Amino acid sequence: MIEAEQIAFVLVRTKSAGNIGAAARALKNMGFADLRLVAPAAGEDRVASEMAVHGRDILERARRYSDLGAALADRTLALGTTCRFGGDRAPAGPLRQVAVELSGLAAERVAIIFGPEDHGLSNHELSFCQRLIVIPTAPDYPSLNLAQAVMVTAWELFMARADAGASRTQVALAPWPDNAAMLARLERALISIGFLPADNPEHIMASLRALFGRAGLSSREVAILSGIARQIDWFARGGRETVERKQRAGRAIR
């Protein structure tokens, strides 16, 4: 079962110090402690401390990063929160379902990512995520306050971990940076063979990220996909002639 210390809550470009403090309190309530702040617009102030209440220790230990990639460097699975759909965005799974799935992981290091209060995570920031989460709400007003979203997410994760009947699969996922590098290599390869348009590869890449995120790739699987992507790119950039020359000479291709 995944432990509380394996889950990091990442707040990106947060505008309100009060929301940062309230998020720290929510994590304390639910037994989590890893709070990460990416390029926060809000500074440390009295409001954040007051809102944190007995979660001030979590607020004081919160790590700050200049960019999202740095905040995810030690993670194996990155999940982004969203309430918007369509366009190039991959399908989002309901929070409760995803929480149960996460509770079955063993040695993984998970990041749950929340965007700023006004418009959430950008499409670029969502491209860092292997999976997306949505908190079901009434359709007339689906957008939650940031601190409330953190609290609901932390509570669902807490309850899923406490549920003795939850699925307990043992999966060893590849580190997030390895996944990101593989996807970047695959994007270049698919552009080189004309499968993806160079001016808008994101439309398909979002779906591929979602597919691989659902699959939960191991390090070996990521390495295999990276090798395939590298070979595709090499073949498209002139390797075909080398292969045909070796075939004519009756030599092994590799």
Which key features would you list for this structure?
254 residues; 10 helices; alpha/beta; Helicase, Ruva Protein, domain 3; Alpha/beta knot; 7-stranded parallel sheet; 48% helix; 2 domains
CATH architecture verdict of the largest domain: 3-Layer(aba) Sandwich
Q: What is the overall silhouette?
A: elongated
Q: What fraction of residues sit in β-strands? A: 5-15%
| Mean model confidence by pLDDT | 86
Please give a structural write-up.
The chain has 254 residues and is of the alpha/beta class. It has two domains: 159 residues, SPOUT methyltransferase, trefoil knot domain (Alpha/beta knot); 73 residues, Helicase, Ruva Protein, domain 3, CATH 1.10.8. It contains ten helices and seven strands. Helix 8 runs parallel beside helix 10. The termini are far apart. About 2% of the residues have low confidence.
Short summary:
The chain is of the alpha/beta class. The chain is built from 10 helices and 7 strands. The protein has 2 domains: 4-162, Alpha/beta knot; 176-248, Helicase, Ruva Protein, domain 3, CATH 1.10.8.
Chain-wise SSE layout:
Blueprint: E1 7-12, H1 17-29, E2 34-38, H2 46-52, H3 56-61, E3 63-65, H4 68-71, E4 77-81, E5 93-94, H5 95-103, E6 110-114, H6 123-126, E7 131-134, H7 146-162, H8 176-192, H9 202-215, H10 219-248
Parallel strand pairs: 1-2, 1-6, 2-3, 4-6, 4-7, 5-7
Helix pairs in contact: 1-2, 1-7, 5-7, 8-10
